[in-house]
Amino acid sequence: MHETFVLINCDLGKEEQIVKSLQEIEYVKEVQATHGVYDVVAKLETKTEKELTDIVRQKILGLGPVHSVLTLFAQ
């Protein structure tokens, strides 16, 4: 199991929209809007690195108001 934290930058005022969208993704276990450099933090649990890559590239970066992400792999 791969546990990963994804830090997300998005359009101002779109944090709650992103949180709601992320809550619908199967592998997202926790998600919070934050204040600071990043707007949203999500915890994902995937079986493979390919699953993680696909989720980040297709589902998270595919959300319109998302500008960038930073992924942190937990050990």
UniProtKB/TrEMBL annotation:
Q: What InterPro entries does the record tag this protein with? A: Dimeric_a/b-barrel, Tscrpt_reg_AsnC/Lrp_C
Q: Where are the transmembrane segments?
A: none
Q: Specify the domain of life of the species encoding this protein.
A: Archaea
Q: Please give the SUPFAM superfamilies that the UniProt record associates with this protein.
A: Dimeric alpha+beta barrel (SSF54909)
Which residues does UniProt assign to the signal peptide?
A: none
Q: Where is the Transcription regulator AsnC/Lrp ligand binding domain?
A: 6-74
According to UniProt, the name of this protein is: Transcription regulator AsnC/Lrp ligand binding domain-containing protein
